[in-house]
Specification:
The structure holds two protein chains of two kinds. Chain A is mostly helical. Chain A is built from five helices and no strands. Chain B is globular, with a radius of gyration of 23 Å. In chain B, strand 10 and strand 11 form a beta hairpin. Chain B is 31% helix and 25% strand. Chain B has a six-stranded antiparallel barrel with strand order 1-2-5-4-3-12. A six-stranded antiparallel beta barrel of chain B has the order 6-7-8-11-10-9. Chain B folds into two domains: 59 residues, no CATH class; 167 residues, Beta Barrel (Thrombin, subunit H), CATH 2.40.10.340. Chain B has three helices and twelve strands; from the N terminus they run αααββββββββββββ. Chains A and B meet through helix 1, helix 2, helix 3 and helix 4 of A and helix 1 and helix 2 of B.
């Protein structure tokens, strides 16, 4: 397909996602909420690459995000990998012919990622993660990530060397 | 997708990933050195990429802010102008008092804030995610002499402490994080206590440990509203860093201890430049629990975090 090996392409996608998150979405927020691009990459991988490779990409994506988050290393990695696996298992039997269907699944999965991160982060001692605003944040992240999902899915599909299953 | 030969089945693979994640989590929680170093290395490696990308997208981000936050900026500008006029008026008075105070601290051998070496840093990033509003990233790190735990201030007073240090950047935990406990001194009566901000109220600091309510009912000994509160000499931070001014004094539910509410001098939600005081903690955290005491012995270092 291309000369660039898969790990390199995956690294490019992850670093691009992280960089955009750390630069653009520090200021550009919707209702005070930033989209979660690395969660989007994770769930897109589950959707695009299935249960074999999707959770691995989700884990790496979460691990990279963990490096910058105040919670201990591994919180986002565990959550993103688990949700990516869930997305992969759920969408495996679907007949995928609709971008709206993909956006809905990835948006909902992103919402689950945010809630899962807050729950696990709180369990391991993170402060300020569980609040009344959590649901609002999770819903806004889900909506914005749903809008961004076609781009994310294309990038992940490119990174994983044509493993894309959506049309 | 056809199952790949040589790969673990998906269910086993996800279990391995989760196990791996929890192992990393446990190691990080137990402050296993190489984990922290590896994270720091990744951040340092990616720093140039993020910095260049930040420079490229900053006009876009500024335009976004100009469109969506213009009214806020205008209001803020007017308020700042009024505040600046007021500050100019009090500057001379403060200079005179500072000199007298320096002499007093020298006599008591408490390190004076003005003598502490410091580094000024620019805030390069506010909270990056949706759950870290109480964290900022500054453009100075270990190469500038910054280490974890150092106090971070502005001209108005304390804003937080250094939480994580990389070679060229550092992360600061702001005082608005209610889990950050600071030992403070009430300048009106020299009493020492422990306090932190109230969740979701980043400008209100609440001192609720170490202060006794007068059991004899003599309310004249209560600290006066409007008097300053500063970091205590026995605190893990340098002494006399301003925290704010007392806005209310009340008794706790048990009628034996005192709760003091302080309006913070700094608005930690809107910072552009900060100063890191290059001084190690004055004392270590004690595992003792602070209980209200009838003695006047300082207890501010206990339980401070």
């Amino acid at each position: 397909m291309t000369a660039v090996p898969v790990p390199m392409r995956l690294a490019i996608v992850l670093v691009v996602g992280l960089t955009v998150q750390l630069t653009v979405f520090v200021d550009v927020r919707v209702a005070g909420v930033a989209p979660e691009l690395l969660a989007l990459v994770a769930v897109s991988a589950g959707f695009v690459a299935g249960p074999q490779r999707g959770p691995v990409v989700g884990f790496l994506s979460g691990l990279l995000w963990d490096v910058y988050l105040p919670t201990p290393l591994g919180v986002a990695a565990v959550v993103f990998a688990s949700v990516a696996y869930g997305v992969a298992m759920f969408s495996e039997g679907l007949f995928r012919d609709s971008r709206a269907q993909m956006a809905a699944i990835l948006g909902l999965a992103s919402t689950v990622c945010v809630i899962g991160y807050a729950l696990l982060g709180s369990i391991v001692g993170g402060s300020g993660l569980l609040s009344f605003g959590l649901l609002g944040i999770a819903v806004v992240v889900g909506l914005v990530n749903a809008l961004l999902s076609p781009i994310a899915a294309l990038m992940v599909a490119w990174a994983l060397d044509g493993e894309a299953q959506f049309r | 997708m056809a199952p790949s030969r040589g790969f673990a089945p998906p269910r086993r693979r996800i279990l391995l990933l989760v196990l791996c994640g929890f192992t990393l989590l446990t190691l990080d929680l137990s402050r296993f050195g190489p984990i922290g170093s590896a994270q720091s290395l990744v951040r340092d490696l990616l720093h140039p990429v993020v910095e260049v990308a930040g420079a490229i997208v900053s006009p876009f981000a500024n335009a976004w802010n100009a469109v969506f936050d213009y009214d806020d900026l205008e209001t803020q500008n007017r308020a700042l102008q009024a505040e600046l006029d007021q500050l100019r008026g009090t500057a001379l008075e403060v200079d005179a008092e500072r000199e007298a105070f320096r002499r007093l601290l020298a006599a008591t051998e408490i390190p004076y804030l003005g003598e502490v070496e410091r580094v000024t840093a620019m805030v390069v990033r506010r909270g990056i995610g949706n759950f870290d509003d109480d964290v900022i990233t500054i453009d100075k790190g270990s190469t500038s002499g910054i280490t974890t735990g150092m106090a971070v201030v502005t001209g108005a007073g304390m804003v937080g402490r250094v939480d994580r240090v990389d070679s060229t950047t550092a992360t600061v935990q702001l005082l608005s994080d209610s889990s950050m406990v600071v030992g403070v001194r009430l300048t009106d009566n020299d009493e020492i206590g422990l306090g932190s901000t109230i969740p979701n109220e980043p400008r209100v600091f609440r001192i609720d440990r170490g202060l006794d309510w007068p059991l004899d009912g003599d309310l004249s000994v209560l600290p006066a509203v409007g008097t300053p509160v500063v970091t205590a000499g026995s605190s893990r931070y340098p002494a006399e860093i301003p925290i704010g001014r007392i806005s209310a004094v009340e008794s706790a539910d048990d009628d034996r201890s005192m709760i003091v509410l302080v309006e913070m001098a700094n608005d930690v939600t809107d910072l552009s430049y900060v100063t890191v005081l290059l001084a190690e903690g004055m004392s270590q955290i004690s595992s003792e629990v602070v209980v209200p005491s009838t003695s006047t012995a300082p207890a501010a270092d206990a339980g401070e975090g």
